[in-house]
Amino acid sequence: MYCPQCGQQQATGMVRFCSRCGFPLDGVIHLLGTGGMLPVYHQSDEPVQISPRRKGVKQGAILLLSGAVIVPILGVIASFSNGAFPQILAALAAIICFIGGPFRMLYAALFEEGAPRRYPTYGPPPPVTAPPQFAPPRQHSALPPPPARAPSAWRKPNTAELANPPSVTENTTRLLDKEDRTER
């Protein structure tokens, strides 16, 4: 396969980027695999419906969390009343909420149908509004352009002010001293 940007021949057909110019070749591989047809994703204006599985899990979670509120309230009411009915009601609410909620979530996750998968359809390409993919690359600068004139308050530091450079004579003398020590 050849890069459509620079013409560099690629070593294998599974390369993701051109080895010379860095052009992304994933789209080219996809185009070659589908015979030159681009995927067309249809965006519908209708709202996306919740799948039965997700709806069931949501119902189970709401039932479980509502039990955390309802059961304590019914327990307080049962403690202030003398009859057996409020105590049975609190126990029944606890069983329904804390056991029924997780069972509803489990049933929905295992047995109910999930959202239908949307596969792309291949057809004629949509109208091109962006610049073509194989046009020469535009040069985008990551930084803003430099100012017209440099700020006057800043000056380039002179690093020679920090330490005086050694002279050639001193450096040569040091090297000769090192040689004299190694010969002894």
Structure explained in plain terms:
The structure is a single chain. By secondary structure, this protein is mainly α. Among the domains are: 1-40, no CATH class; 52-111. Helix content is 43%, strand content 3%. Helix 2 (52-80) packs antiparallel against helix 3. The radius of gyration is 38 Å and the shape is extended. The model has no long low-confidence stretch (mean pLDDT 77).
Task: Walk me through the topology.
Blueprint: H1 26-33, E1 38-40, H2 52-80, H3 85-111, E2 121-123, H4 168-183
Antiparallel strand pairs: 1-2
Helix pairs in contact: 2-3
Structure keywords:
single chain, mainly alpha, two-stranded antiparallel ribbon, 2 strands, extended
Low-confidence stretches: none
| Overall geometry | extended
Q: Strand pairing plus helix content: what structural class? A: mainly alpha
Q: Report the oligomer.
A: single chain
Alpha-carbon Rg, integer: 38 Å
The share of residues in extended strands comes to under 5%
First CA to last CA: what distance? 69 Å
Mean pLDDT: 77
What's the total number of strands? 2
Give the fraction of residues assigned to helices.
40-55%
| Major sheet | 2 strands, antiparallel
Count of alpha and pi helical runs: 4
Record the strand order, biggest sheet.
1-2
Series of H and E elements: HEHHEH
